[in-house]
Each structure stands twice: as structure tokens, then as C-alpha cells.
Amino acid sequence: MIVVIRPHAPANEIDEVIREVEVLGYAPAPIHGENQTVVAAIGDENSLPTLESLLAFPQVERVMRVQKRYRLSSREAHPAGSIVDVDGVAVGGPKFVLMAGPCSVESEKQLLETAFAVKDSGAVILRGGAYKPRTSPYEFQGLGPEGLRLLAKAKKETGLKIVTEVLSEFDVEKVAEVADILQVGARNCQNFQLLIACAKAKKPVLLKRGMSQRIEEWLLASEYLLANGNPKVLLCERGIRTFETYTRNTLDLAAVAIAKRESHLPVIVDPSQGCGRADLVITLCCGAISVGADGLIIEVHPNPAEALSDGQQQVNFKGFADLVRQIEPYLTAAKRK
Ligand code: PEP
Ligand code: MN
Asked: The pTM is what?
């Protein structure tokens, strides 16, 4: 770490800091400038205590880390991109992965029709929430166990893999019986007990970025999964909360490029929650591919006008088929299949 001492600090105060750096386990290497001293503290920041506590000394101006806080998800730890095996579907490899399906599982007819339609267009993973995290308790909360039963049926009939959200650490086992990917939603991205329970389930996890979560916090949330023994993590950018009102969220494509650079984990983009408007979904998919996403998760409904959740952002079957056609040149340009 780097400890910057305030200008013109007396020698005894500088020595006080140097002594403390040593007590905390680092080898201090002071650099005495004309007005100011900087102490390079040499040691493994990930196993030694942080020196940020030295800010308690009035003579310390700043303390900076050198190493990344997310050590397992960092690209430094694993320079090649990870490929996550979702029951035979490789995510993060040369093949771009399409996940699609309704926001919520509403009925057998709705789910099965959608599953067959998205499969016909090229999706390999079916999405659909059985448990829904709704802002209002009066809104549709999902079909729960019946929704899981329908997802299992859709999987059996179509062969599609399933991604579905788990809201509570107490539901992980039940959801993992049906899900090939456990989705941890934006509202739960720092529910650490849920993350630990998902890690223990050993199923791949799609970790949505929280709506006001910094990239570092998102990567540290992924670290909970990795550090608890589950390397099968997919990051998912789904838009962050900003001042803008023309869109529900602001899809942060820069974060996708940064996540790809900083981490070896595959990154999936959810343009549906990302903008909250069906008319923008295709455009954002093209952008997502261009910035290096490894896959997309798209909300598709037989008749979005009748959807029990998120109707405004779901595309219909024709919309999804158009989307798959329109992203083709972007996939070729990005050298993805
Ligand atoms: C969803 O995928 O329908 C959903 C609720 O996602 P998020 O957690 O990103 O809001
Ligand atoms: Mn939704």
C-alpha cells in the first residue's frame, strides 16, 4: 500500500507512521520528497490488515491500495477468460449465448409457447422468474413452487437449460433442483448469506449488478461466490439507477467493458431491465456485443401487453426473431459464433 504523509510533517510524526506500518506487518520503504514523504508499504495486502486505519493519524493524508480487493475474480489471478459450463452449454467461450424467456412464469401455456419460440430462434437457455422481487407487495409475486414445476416441464420438453431467480437463502436447494443457473437479482446482489448459500449449491450463478452498485462492489460480491467454493459465476449488467427518466435504468456498457478487462468471469447483458423499453432492446444488444459481452438475457412474452410483470420491456416472438437476425453482423464483427 502507499501511505502519503501530509506536507511538512515533523520527522517524529513520520517515524510514528513508519513504526506502525511495520507493526501491521509491512516492510516500510519511505521516499522523502522535498516537502512530503510517501511510505511504500511492501507486503501482501490481501493477507495483511489494511493500512487505511493509518488515516486515524492526523499526519496521514492518503492511503492507497496497490492490489485489487477481488483476488479470485480478478484477471490478474486468471489471465485467460473463464468458460462456465452450464450443464453442457459453455458460457464465455467463442459461442455467444442467448438466454430468453418471460420476466415471470405466468402459466403453462405462456411458458411452453415462449420456450419453443425462443428455442426456434436460437436461445439455448430459458429464463423465467418463479419467485419475483417486486417493489410493491401488491404486485404479482410469481407462482413460486408451481412456477418451478412449469420450468422443469419446459426444460424436459425443449431441452433448454433454465435460469431462474432465487430470492432467499432458504429457497436455494428447492430452486437449484430445477435451475441450471441460479439468478441472484439486482436487489439481492449484496445479500451475502444468499451468495454463500448459492456458492454451496455448486450450480452456476448469474450475478446481477445492483442498481447502485459500483463495479468494485459487484466484483467483490462475485468474490463471495468464488471464495466459498463456486467458480461458476456469470456477471450480469442490468442497468444502474441514474437521474434519467426516458429509460427505467441506464444500461452501463462501459461497466461491461471494464468487467471484461478487470475480471476473467463471463459477462452477460440484460438490456430488458437495462432500459425498461422493448423498442430499445435490439439496439442495446448490438452495443453489448460490441463491448465484449459473452451473452444476452432477454425478456420475451407471447403478448407483452398482458404480461403480469415488466410488460413494457418484453419483446414478442417476432421481436425476438428479429433481434436474433439483427445481431448477426455484430456477432461476426466481434468474432463470435
Ligand atoms: C428480472 O430478471 O426479471 C429481474 C427482476 O431482474 P433484476 O434483478 O435485474 O431487476
Ligand atoms: Mn423483469
From this structure: 0.95
